[in-house]
Amino acid sequence: MLCRRKPRPLPGTGAAVAAAVCLLSACTGLPARVTPVSDFDVDRYLGTWYEIARLDHRFERGLSNVTASYSMADDGYVRVVNRGFDEDAGEWDEAVGKARFSGPEDTGQLEVSFFGPFYGGYNVIALDQEGYRWSLVAGPTRSYLWLLARSPELDQQRIDALVAEAERLGFPIGELIFVEHDDPPPP
């Protein structure tokens, strides 16, 4: 998740630092009136999640069979591996990154990096607290939204409820892409 918002140039010698702070804070925050879940347990969140739906972005455009796998790394970060099949190219696309909490470790507010020191918000805003079978994840703005599940399919009633919640929170649900999970060639 890389934020596309560019800061306005500022005059003076501290312009680069101020611009970097502005850019990073815009990329790692939460959309207004959106709250991350509490009682979050990262150990239960680890493992593979299937992307059921998403808002379109260039870094996932055209991908099917998209998964996100999370595991603890030796350095204390969460290792993130996002994979998807690019049908046009006939090959798998993979991005490896790392995530860390941006607040208390019992709150579903993290930040993830796939590009060096730059982080983007990863905010778990709805979660099956009982079984950790589904989650709704927002980025730093309403342009970023993912509906994830532990299996490639999720019952329609749950999908409808999560989409309704996203709509209530002001996300552009008419732009959601529902991800195909078929049987592509092995990686």
Explain how this protein is built.
By secondary structure, the chain is an alpha+beta fold. The protein has one domain (15-178): Beta Barrel (Lipocalin), CATH 2.40.128. The chain has three helices and nine strands. It has helices spanning 15-28, 42-45, 156-168; strands at 47-55, 63-72, 78-86, 91-101, 109-115, 118-127, 134-138, 145-149, 176-178. The protein has an eight-stranded antiparallel barrel. The longest helix has 14 residues, at 15-28. Mean pLDDT is 87; it is low at 1-25.
What is the overall number of helices?
3
Q: Main sheet: which strands, in order across?
A: 1-2-3-4-5-6-7-8
Radius of gyration: 17 Å
Query: Which secondary-structure class do the elements indicate?
Result: alpha+beta
Mean pLDDT: 87
Quick structural summary:
17% of the residues lie in helices and 37% in strands. The chain has three helices and nine strands, in the order ααββββββββαβ.
Helices and strands in order:
Elements: H1 15-28, H2 42-45, E1 47-55, E2 63-72, E3 78-86, E4 91-101, E5 109-115, E6 118-127, E7 134-138, E8 145-149, H3 156-168, E9 176-178
Antiparallel strand pairs: 1-2, 1-8, 1-9, 2-3, 3-4, 4-5, 5-6, 6-7, 7-8
